[in-house]
Amino acid sequence: MGIEIDDNTFRVTDMLGVEDAEALLDWLIKHPEGTLELAGCTHLHAANLQVLMATRPRICAWPEDALLADWLRHALNQEE
Amino acid sequence: MNPLLDQFISESRDAIQSIGERLMQLENTPDDHELMDELFRLVHTLKGNSGLFDFPEMTRVLHGAEDLMDTVRDGRLGYSRSLADQLLEAMDFVSGLLDEILAGGDGNLPADAERTAAATALTHSLRQLITTRAGPADPETLAADPLTAPIPATPSPADAPANVTSPLAQIPETARMDACRRIFQGQPCSWLSYQPEEECFFKGEDPFHQITQLPAPLWRRISAREPWPSPDTLDAYRCLLHFESIVPMDLQELTDHFRYIPDQVELTALEPAMLAIPIGDDHDGIPTADYLQTATAHLRSGNHEGLIQASRLLLELSSPGLRVASALRWLLLVLETRPDDVPLLQQLLDNIHPGVAVGDDADTAIPAAPSPPVTGAQGMADPIVGIIETQAEILALNDTPPWLSGRLQAVAASLRAAFTLQGQLKRLEGLDEALQTAITRHTSVPLAHWLAEHVPASASASAPVTEPATTDSPAPIPSGIAAGAGETRKFGRRMEDAYAGPSAIKVDQAKIDRLMNLIGEMIVAKNALPYLAARAEDVFGVRELAREIKGQYGTINRIADEMQDAIMQVRLLPVSFVFQRFPRLVRDTAQKLGKEVRLVLEGESTEADKNVIESLADPLVHILRNSLDHGLETPDERRAAGKPVAGRLAISARSESDRVVIEIADDGRGIDPAMIRRKAYEKGIIDEQALERLTDQEALNLVFAPGFSTASQVSDLSGRGVGMDVVRTAVARVNGSIDLNSRPGAGTRLRLSLPLSMAVTNVMIIVSASQRFGVSMDAVAETVRVAQADIQRIKHQMTTVLRGRVVPLVALNDLLALDEAQIPNEDGEMAVVVVRIENDLLGIMVDDCRETVDIILKPLAGFLGNLRGYAGSALLGDGSVLLVLNPRELL
Question: pLDDT (tens digit, 9 = 90+) per residue, B540-560?
């Protein structure tokens, strides 16, 4: 459980497991303007990916892992 | 290999065996629900167990089988022969996998694309049975299931499962060119489309992890299979993701990577020709005609420079957004890297032809690609599709009844009405002409052609009819059923799995063998006590002690005997162990030969030692095949001979004192002794004199002669030239015997007689050249003393007359190549052991005959194993080794 929440920021410091998806979704519903900080994220389970894709939150920091960041950018921005 | 896996393998084998049996029983009583439940439970348990290990192929196939059985059990699908065939095939596959796992030794099953493909195909055909048969039975439930309904809201046509070319066309040109360059450089690239199951998260899968484990893709897209719902209604655990990418990996690696879920991914090895799809706006006002002429000429003459220049020129002239420009860019790319790929270049040039619509070039680019069914059934309501398909079926009938023209007119009228109702009047072009041609030529072919041309999708209707609702997306439906069934099953599981605790325990054979060896040693040790008693009396002169030792020996002897008996009981197996595979064998073989056979098994519970039973397996299979292939006639021949059409093959087993008798009888054509004589003579097994002298029974026994095979034609079932002599040798190896009876036209009966147990052998000890040997008491007919005067020589062969019968004599020392003469006793008499070999008697002269003892016969092992003439060795009570002779092999 690598999650830290302060005020309006949801910080992922580790990996986001399958059971975190529910928490993430809840938080995003309650904080529609919230920001996600994924710099420390090493991997996130596909369920979380779905949540992100469906809610399109603001992301202030992308994961440091280039491969993962690439995938997330593609998934969320669909830049081609 | 770990014990859990060990147990899994042995249990699985049992389960597979039982499944086979149940299927056979079901063939006779297809409505037996108890059997059906039992069958389901077996498959279910097997599948559950396989899930504990890393054998995805096995689990997948079993899962398919389980789903199928579930449908059958619920009565949604009837039992049928093809179903049995499918299930048996699946079980054979699983059994093959078990063999592979066992052969691997380390409990792993290395990935193998071929195996994965086989598993997928097998699962698919199992599921096919469910959809094709269960589908029409209750289409409502299928259609009502939200999981199975086709999803119409998918934004991109990339979901059309069969057509991988259309998604490729959507990939930006730069990415495709990148991939193409890599392929030219020798880096294989593959197309991946991965749609995880909706409930995959509950199975512990992480599709995103699967994807990120792959090397960075050249192009990727992550989409949803339906528009994302609003965050409030989003179910985070219903997977809607769809990954598409071009991965720089070859197909094999990628298949391995996804080997657990091959049904959720679509993988294609990319070829340049698939990628080179020009895209862009249509062009006008660009002078392509001139260019094409020059370019084609350059291409033909192999002038690459000229082609490049001309292409560059045209590229500069055209706006980069045009399709022409795109085609030219591709052309230049190919010219730079692979100028020799003329077909590809030509294909690109063809794309520049004016007036080619974007929708068409996918087809021209890849001729092999299946054309999307745009004009097909999709534009119409289902009932109408049904009508049209029915017409296609009617047209596909290849009979020509007198009312054919009426039928044709009716078909045409139905089609006309169907199309008119759909408002597709222009499709009716040519229908009247086709109808006229059909009526004049008195065949339905022209009309069928017309229908196939005008309604391409309905052409599929001439193949076995599939449920219209399923044709759009066949893949999700089985999983839907599986999910539905899986849910109900979860609740019922406890009840189904709770069968009574077993009253028998399973013990590894090695443990029993060890126990038996120990008891054998104890018997040997026990046998040492009489020697000890004799020594106490003779050497130490303590008669009292000797008597007490003897008393103790009596007690130990009794206990040892009982122990031996008990362990023998443990080792006893019912003959059904061997018999149980016969129904399947007979069924398959008979089917292959086109014969009808009724197999009758009797006395399956008769027991014998495990080794005896096991040694029976191969000979019996051989005998059965012989009976089926050569013995029983085809149904026509039987009818002509006035016999029932189905042949009868009876296998019975029974105990006769200390032997087991197994009889295999058929009511086939029997064996003709005259033919055997002729064959044997032709093959040089007997000479001309023997030809006349032999009785019919003796002639029949010739089938056991080495090198004799009665089949005039070698079939793939029997008659590989090994013949019955192999059978006889195998039976003789366990001290068994075999007789053959046959009446031409009435059938053949083979009788196998085998000892109950081979563990303890009663041997007679004989002495020759001051060494001790054993001869099995089974072989000894009698022992006699023959005065030297009574031994006559007939042509170098010593003989004597015993009770009016001439018995040939041989000296054991000669047989063993010992350079000593046999010693007669004080009265000048020779000790002779008369042994029975087959049905002949032979006298073996020895120096002396001693007592008989029970021994545990051990076969000679290692280098000594090649020594012929010895049945084995045994330890005697005084610690010495006794070699036991095998008279048959000595000769």
Answer: 888 899 999 999 999 998 998
Residue B852: count other Cβ atoms within 10 Å of its Cβ: 14
Distances from the Cα of B619 to the Cα of B622, B650, B730, B734, B798, angstroms: 5, 16, 7, 12, 37
Instruction: Give the Cα separation of A47 and B202 in Å (integer).
Output: 11
**B218 Cβ contact partners less than 8 Å away, ≥ 6 residues apart:** B175, B178, B179, B182, B189, B245, B246, B247, B248
Secondary structure (3-state) at B882: strand
Q: Per-residue pLDDT tens for B591-616?
A: 888 888 888 888 888 888 888 888 88
Task: Select from B212, B229, B236 the Cβ nearest to the Cβ of A67.
Answer: B212
Nearest CA in chain B to A72: B222
| Percent above pLDDT 70 for chain B | 82
C-alpha–C-alpha distance, residues B132 and B80, integer Å: 13
**Does B57 score more than 70 pLDDT?**
yes
Q: Exposure string (b/e) for B814-841, b if CB count within 10 Å is 16 or more?
A: ebbeeeeebbbeeeeebbbbbbbeeeeb
* Closest to B732 in 3D by CA, of B843, B589, B836: B836
Report whether B670 contacts B641 (CB < 8 A).
no
Alpha-carbon gap, residue B56 to B373, rounded angstroms: 35
Query: What residues form DSSP beta bridges with B855?
Result: B761
Residues of B in contact with A28 (CB under 8 A): 231
Q: Where are the alpha helices (DSSP H) in B198-341?
A: 207-212, 251-257, 272-275, 288-301, 304-317, 323-337
Q: CA angle, B685 as apex, B684 and B687 as ends, to 5°?
A: 70
Interface contact flag, A53 B208, Cβ < 8 Å = no
What is the mean pLDDT of the segment spanning B440-458?
A: 71
Give the gap in angstroms from C-alpha B202 to the nearest C-alpha of chain A.
10
CB contact under 8 A, A78 and B236: no
Q: According to the model, what pLDDT value does residue B381 have?
A: 56
- Structure token pair of residue B560: 């040892």
* Average pLDDT of chain B to the nearest whole number: 76
Q: Which of A47, A54, A80 sits opposite B237 (nearest CB)?
A: A47
pTM of this structure: 0.43
